[in-house]
Every structure is written in C-alpha cells, then in structure tokens.
Amino acid sequence: DAGVIQSPRHEVTEMGQEVTLRCKPISGHDYLFWYRQTMMRGLELLIYFNNNVPIDDSGMPEDRFSAKMPNASFSTLKIQPSEPRDSAVYFCASGRGRGQFFGPGTRLTVL
Amino acid sequence: QQPVQSPQAVILREGEDAVINCSSSKALYSVHWYRQKHGEAPVFLMILLKGGEQKGHDKISASFNEKKQQSSLYLTASQLSYSGTYFCGPHGSARQLTFGSGTQLTVLP
Fold this sequence. Notes:
- The structure holds 2 protein chains of 2 kinds.
- Helices cover about 0% and strands about 55% of the residues of chain A.
- Chain A contains no helices and 11 strands.
- In chain A, the strands form 2 sheets. In chain A, strands 2, 4, 5, 6, 9, 10 and 11 form a 7-stranded mixed sheet that branches. A 4-stranded antiparallel sheet of chain A has the order 1-3-8-7, with no helix packed on it.
- In chain A, β7 and β8 (about 75-80) form a beta hairpin.
- Chain A is globular and about 35 Å long.
- The model of chain A has no long low-confidence stretch (mean pLDDT about 95).
- The interface of A and B includes residues 55, 97, 98 and 102 of A.
C-alpha cells in the first residue's frame, strides 16, 4: 500500500508569496494531521481533521495559515503571505486512532 | 503542555540496553512512541492503551503507568539501526498528541 504522499518535497519561495502544501492520506484513514518541525520548537501539531472536518486548529500559528480537506483523499495547507520564520519541515500524517503514519514531509524555505 | 522526556541524549555500544522515560503533567489515555531518523519522517513504533500495559516491537518494548502518567521505552541489545530520535506522544483527553522534545539515541559499533 502507498503511504502518505506529500508534495512538493522541497519548496523555496520568497517572503510574501503564497505557499500551498498538499497531502494524500492513506486510504481508509479517517484522521489527518498537519505538523511543523523545527530545531527550536520540535514537532508541533498545527491542525487535525476527522472525516474531513477540522477538529482542532489551535496550533495554527496565525491567520496566514489555513488548511482544508475537501475530500477523504486530499488536504492542503496554505500559507499566505509566507515569512522567513515559516521555514520548517511540514509533515502530514494520517491514522485510524491507533498510531499516526507520517508522510515524507515538505521542506519549506522562505527567503 | 509538552511531556518531558529523559534523557535528552544517550550514546550506546551495539548490544547495550537503554531506557527512555516520558512523563506528563496531564492525565493520559494512551501513549504513542515514534522514532525519527535524521532527514526522515517519524515512524510509529507502538501505542500503549492501558495502565501498566507493556507492548513490544522487535527488541523494543514499553510500559505505561497510567497513575503516574509516565511511560518508558526499553531498548534491549541495541542495534545500529536503533539510532535516531525517539518521541513519546501522550494522548490526553483530546484526540491529538503532544510530542515530547525527543531523546537522541546513538548506537556505536
């Protein structure tokens, strides 16, 4: 079975630009999580969905961040406008309540 | 609130044992353990659902003391492949995990 798929794997953009990260969860998983990882702050949960519905977005740092899950097989995390401090690795993970399975991550660099 | 992991780092020789501890200030329903190798995504190792329960994954096992809000990960006869950063993810009343700061494990030949 294919694991969680994320795209792009690397993104380099300039401050002020819009960035969209994409995630395809494992088929049959009803939970989807977006995380951000940095050396300073570790692994932080940004938002998670259950059956495509956002449950908790308290980890989303600012209004510049938004996430959607239009269907069970696709989710996006958007940053608009991006800032240098958004540079991090963004992970998407999916699960069925017994462990989370992470995608390979998107390494975002905002110049 | 982030759970506390100890030690922060440990260096072992192949074949030696190690214990990683995780404690939370909040009541726990379960604990997840993950391992992340450098440049890779975290990988799910195991979940412990009941107080006192122990589970195993190869020569890696864990315990969960619900009353003390603590979990420990036991690595027996460590192998080179065990190197990485280990995260505990206590599961409180909410569905989301709050990951610890991680324990960096290095196994030397």
